[in-house]
Amino acid sequence: MSKKTFNPTDWQTPSHPQSLNSLNSLSHSPLLWRGAGGEVETITTRIEAATTDIAPNYPDWRDLGFALADGFGESGRSYYHRLSRFYPKYNPTETDKQYDNCLNAHGHGITIKTLYHLAKAAGIEISNIAKLPNLQNGNMAKSKSRDIAKSPNCQNGDFEKLAISTPLTIFSPLPFGEGQGERLCVRSEALPDYLRQITAYGNSPEDTDLLLLGSLVVISACLPNVYGIYGGVTVYPNLFLFVTAQASAGKGRLSLCRRLVEPIHRQLREINKLENEEYRRRQAEYVANKKNPDYEQPEEPPLRVLFVPANSSATAVFQILNDNNGVGLIFETEGDTLAQTFKTEHGNYSDGFRKAFHHEKISYLRRKDREYVTLEVPKLSALLSGTPRQVQSLIPDAENGLFSRFIFYYMNIRLQWIDVFAGKETESLDRIFDRLGDRFFDFYNKLNRTGAICFSLTESQQKEFFTFFETAQQQYWELFGQDFIGTVRRLGLITFRIAMILTTLRLMESNACSNNLNSPKILNSQFSILNCSDLDFQTSLSIVKVLFHHAAFVFNQLSQPLNSLNSLNSLSSLNSSNKKTFFQSLPVQFDRAQYIAIAAQLQIPESTADKQIARFLNAGLLTKQAHGNYCKTKDS
Prior knowledge:
Number of strands: 16
Largest sheet: 5 strands, mixed
Number of helices: 22
Low-confidence stretches: 1-37, 130-163, 173-184, 514-525, 561-572
């Protein structure tokens, strides 16, 4: 397969009908398709090295499926294949069918600990991997009521099929550099001071992620005069975010982020109120003096708002944006509000929504006076949240152009009762975030008095950016096919926009923003250059590494279109699903004999397996250690 070069200009203006390392050692291998935590991977690798069947009878095999379904949901399927293939009569189709049954089971109570027990009983060394309580009787299934209560993916006894087994979070839940924290990416100290204050109120890594992402999105709509050049085109900081989780998972905390920009909305409404009062006064004068030629009929003032209601007609949304110089923020905590609007005759502004992401012109007809209007530079941001089903209602398949424009973040539901009285605060979070909103409001007004600010990456950052996304494009192309490439490419633009927001917020700390920006380099009186710091650049890349995880996960849940991806994968007899299964079935280290055996179990011809291994090597998913010996790259 020939390499496809990452070039923003190839997709900057598309047609429209449609884990981790520390900041100081960012890897250039961005593929983050990982099905499990390190412990299970280590156990699986040891079982593969021993070529041991740890579930020789049906009850054990069934319980192994229950254990993986409990611990990993759909992501555990590849482990089920890897651990089942040493059974003499292993059949991939039967294994898939059995795993489907395990995913759909209710209340069996078997947890991931059963895997540890089966491995230990088969003679696999696990003592230096994890402590295994209550193994004396050799049957973890006896602890049903206790274990189901501890299951992280359990809701009312039902096991979620749609779940990321090990939470993929932006913030480390452990001290940075210890244990799992080594493969997570961002410390709060790396953020601008304003975002550090916001994320300090997170009550878990996922909750902290929500506050960070939600803040970035609402702020992205409120940075006047800030822009950058990306792929030769002027772009602004605007972001689209969809947070998806089952009901009561905690996504409601996003409402706190709305408070950060409420003062701006209130200011616009106050201005609008005064303008309407003046309009009514002048209109009354005009009516009273209609025959006087010196009196002209006043024009109705624009509708000044920041928040754009999602359940508006297409014309109404475009008119609101036009009235506000193209600026707007759609903030909806129920994603199906927008989905239902798109399904109505007059509310389907999906095309304009997609155009707005790239600031492309939007034209519409005002029915009131039959006026043809062109919205020159829409600067729309959007924050939505909802259940996985609501994602599919808004974006029915992965080919839909809306998918690649969104940042996706999937939250696991945790069976943990939060102590709502644990804090000793005398002030509510509402009041605290209102105060944070007042601080941003002051900064916003200073930006309004400042000339244009042109954000840019340094030359070394541009080179690192190119290398990172060129590698990402090749790797995701190989495993997910053409339908995911739009997401890879737009995550490049999203990375640039996140860096733009982080760097602009640094100005709050230095008070560099006044009537003139004290930036490092003033080009002329019209605009200033704002260079991205290395810290903000690395932070942006680190955040997007996690977002790759979530986008890939949500992508896999969407129905694939019938004409999906395989036209450009015609060089291979394996479709995208078979490639992923083959790749995930490979151990971390293996030789040709092993991958040929795995291919045979998956009914893949030997010649096809050889070609596919070569493509994995070409994509950077594998490295060749010696003749016939291979190793998965660190982040694959």
